[in-house]
Amino acid sequence: MTVDILSPGKLKKASPVFGQTSFNDHEQIVFCNDKDTGLKAIIGIHNTVLGPALGGTRMWNYASEWDALNDVLRLSRGMTFKAAITGLNLGGGKAVIIGDAKSEKTPELMKRFGEFVHSLSGKYITAEDVGMETADMDLVRTVTPYVTGISEDKGGAGNPSPVTAYGVFMGMKAAAQFTYGSNNLEGKKVLVEGIGHVGEVLVEHITNEGGEVIISDINEARLEEVSKKYGATVYRGNDPYIADVDIYAPCALGATINDDTFHKLNATIVAGAANNQLADENKHALLLQERGITYAPDFLINAGGIINVYAELEKYDRHEIMRKTENIYDTTLEILNTSEMRGITTHQAALEVALERIAARKAANK
Ligand code: NAD
Q: What region holds the Glutamate/phenylalanine/leucine/valine/L-tryptophan dehydrogenase C-terminal domain (predicted)?
């Protein structure tokens, strides 16, 4: 059966799930529906060759259910490569809950979601993502053990966002080393777009090193708070992509590097926390490269959070979490050098390392 999908500017025919543009040999997609709590969620399991599919749950007011499906397909695929390149024995998965996290998230809805996670018997393990807090994972934990990112007093590794921010900072420094010949960010102008859980801590690291931070966000109260706390400048123009900066750090949502933005960027480095920063990963990675912009692959440098939650499963301590996260610096530098040596994009260089690890495990499992 085919259905018509109305996307901006074009009407295209596609099979409902397997024909989605973001479908990429995903193993399993689970649609969760509960009338009583109003839960509408989709769990995407992309690949479990390296281990159970681990990835956060995002709650977002999607414009359409197709947008939610595409998001979970893209995000879960990214998790596969993130775990693989970071050397973790995890597969890639992600979940999305359709709705406004501020007004529609209830304890009943979170617990019902947890029951759906539990029904997968550990094939998918959840954690927090945009719209979720550690407290939400604590609620999920009351109905299933297949959840990470729970509070420290409940035996978890706590909020992963500061660790993610540290990893992004490491990736940014590696990109600076590669591009400018020095990893010191002193005097560098950095645009941090999205100053949420990760963005704020990133602002702190850059400021502490003497970098000049410009912040943009759709939340005016956050802008005021973060600007006051770290002395960051608030971007007040109409288009943050044309800002006169050295580094652009996307830390809001994905696909901000697209046909409308890539040519405007003044930055010489793109390094941020957001997942799926490139709207079209092959095309936009190449376009950035052609413009001489160093792109630090998102799934490589934002792996701090998954390193943090993986500690809950493997029982390693904070010292080991930070050591593994710091290692993002070396891996990023290696990937950037490989891409230059082989004349391929940095995204392709990172993807190849991840794919090789998965292929080797698959062959060994046979
Ligand atoms: P968050 O929800 O705490 O913060 C996101 C911020 O972006 C908010 O302040 C929001 O107002 C702002 N925002 C939303 N749309 C915007 C827009 N169009 N322009 C400017 N700002 C906008 O989320 P977070 O946990 O900080 O995560 C940020 C990004 O990093 C997400 O894409 C997430 O998937 C990714 N990520 C997070 C982690 C983690 O540990 N939290 C790990 C890996 C990747």
A: 158-366
**CA quadruple 68, 69, 71, 75: dihedral positive or negative?**
positive
In short, whether 253's Cβ falls inside 6 Å of ligand 1 is yes
Q: Where do we find the tokens 């750090």?
A: 249
* Residue 144 Cα to ligand 1 middle (Å): 26
134 pocket-lining for ligand 1 (C-beta < 6 Å): no
- Residues noted as catalytic: 94
Euclidean distance between CA atoms 164 and 174, whole angstroms = 15
CA distance 91 to 76: 9
**133, 253, 313, 316: CA torsion to nearest 10:** -100
Using alpha carbons only, what angle is made at residue 105 by residues 100 and 107, rounded to the nearest 5 degrees?
A: 175
Same topology for domains 21-78+90-159 and 162-356, yes or no? yes
21-78+90-159 sits in which CATH class? alpha beta
Top-level class of domain 162-356: alpha beta
CA angle 353, 354, 357 (to 5 degrees): 85
Tens of pLDDT, residues 109-155? 999 999 999 999 999 999 999 999 999 999 999 999 999 999 999 98
Domain extents in the chain: 21-78+90-159, 162-356
Taking residue 67's Cβ as centre, other Cβ atoms within 10 Å add up to 15
Report the residue among 164, 227, 306, 310 best suited for mutation to probe ligand 1: largest number of ligand atoms under 8 A from its CB.
Answer: 164
Query: Of the residues 88, 217, 260, which should be mutated to test ligand 1's pocket, given the most ligand atoms within 8 Å of the CB?
Result: 217
User: Closest by alpha carbon to 127, among 170, 168, 164, 172?
Assistant: 164
**Strand spans (E) along 168-235:** 189-193, 212-216, 233-234
The angle that helices 346-365 and 65-86 make with each other, rounded to 10 degrees, is 80
Q: Which amino acid is it at 100? A: D
Task: Find all residues with CB under 8 Å of 267, minimum gap 6, and list them.
Answer: 191, 245, 246, 247, 248, 293
pLDDT in tens, 261-315: 999 999 999 999 999 999 999 999 999 999 999 999 999 999 999 999 999 999 9
